[in-house]
Amino acid sequence: MSQQASQETILEVRDLVKEYNRKKVLKKLSFEIHEGEILSFIGPNGAGKTTLLKILSGFLTSDSGAVYISQKEVTNQLDLLNKKVSTVFGGGNGFYKNASVVENLFFFASLMGLRRHTIPEKIKHVLKQVELTEHQDKKVGHLSMGMLQRLHIARGLLKDSPILLLDEPTNGVDAEISHSLRKIIKNIAQHGTAVILTSHILQEVSDLSDQIFLLYHGEIMFSGDLSHIIAASGVAYIDRPATLEESYLGLLAKIGGNHA
Ligand SMILES: Nc1ncnc2c1ncn2[C@@H]1O[C@H](COP(=O)(O)OP(=O)(O)OP(=O)(O)O)[C@@H](O)[C@H]1O
Ligand SMILES: [Mg+2]
């Protein structure tokens, strides 16, 4: 999973800016992700994480900056972004509750324009990827939070896109489900998909990420792999390394100090 020189850059973001009502909520963000990598954005509520994912998935336009997918510029080309990037925002809505898991996936696969005869096989494959096969005939309204979250990911995988965005993928699920979702996410990346996720669950971020970006008021304040982030925080113990959570709190205190 960790980055090798030979891996292709799938997505590149340069100096991305987004304003809401003349207030900058993303301030010149730049980063890139390679195939098979997992990159995480962490940061306080309102830092701009979801806004960034919405721009990358073609739901929102940016005000300046550029986005490239496999070296081709796709900035604000909403249809193209939508086609190339799969996004999972999660939550309780977005499916037909009286229809089954398979029926819902069939519907969305048709909407996405998958060729009809390829859909059953594709659905079988994505259900296996998210370990939902045995629940395929359940009504969506009867699914647990964890199953629903896996169904969101399954829908995201229908598109076969090289980039998967996950906004707080384990929000509201218990520790066991969260663990199984992490395994699923790792597995998706191991098959070559570039995964970008946001999360407030720092144990999950430290477990999954090849690169971590700390976003604060729309700015990337720190970035690097886990050991780099921990070192940058300056938080250290005699008998063990600091956790990401301890380091994150240390970094926020530093940022707060500098902004005071
Ligand atoms: N539609 C909107 N109109 C105006 N301002 C918005 C809109 N959506 C988001 N914002 C503002 O943009 C900023 C970034 O919000 P965003 O939802 O991207 O943060 P976030 O990092 O995802 O937060 P959280 O951790 O709570 O999910 C916030 O100040 C938010 O209030
Ligand atoms: Mg958010």
Task: Characterize the structure shown.
This protein has 260 residues and is α/β, with parallel strands linked by helices. The chain has two domains: 9-224, P-loop containing nucleotide triphosphate hydrolases (Rossmann fold, 3-Layer(aba) Sandwich); 233-260. Helices cover 38% and strands 24% of the residues. The protein has helices at residues 49-56, 78-84, 101-111, 119-129, 145-158, 175-190, 202-208, 226-233, 244-259; strands at residues 9-20, 23-34, 38-42, 64-69, 72-73, 85-88, 163-167, 194-198, 211-216, 219-224. The strands form two sheets. Strands 6-7-8-3-9-10 form a six-stranded mixed beta sheet, sandwiched between helices. Helix 3 packs parallel to helix 5, helix 4 packs across helix 5 (145-158) and helix 8 (226-233) packs across helix 9. The site of magnesium ion has 3 residues, from helix 1. Magnesium ion binds next to helix 1.
Calculate the mean pLDDT score and round it. Answer: 92
Low-confidence stretches: none
Q: Give me the count of strands.
A: 10
Task: Catalogue the ligands.
Answer: adenosine-5'-triphosphate, magnesium ion
What is the count of DSSP helices, taking H or I runs of 4+ residues? 9
| Morphology call | globular
Strand line-up across the major sheet? 6-7-8-3-9-10
**Share in β-strands:** 15-25%
Major beta-sheet overview = 6 strands, mixed
CATH homologous superfamily caption of the largest domain: P-loop containing nucleotide triphosphate hydrolases
Helical proportion?
25-40%
* Amino- and carboxy-terminal Cα gap: 39 Å
Q: CATH class of the largest domain, please? A: Alpha Beta
Write the CATH architecture name of the largest domain: 3-Layer(aba) Sandwich
Structural class: alpha/beta
CATH topology of the largest domain: Rossmann fold
Using the CA coordinates, give the radius of gyration. Answer: 19 Å
Total domain units: 2
Topology order in helix (H) and strand (E) letters: EEEHEEHEHHHEHEHEEHH
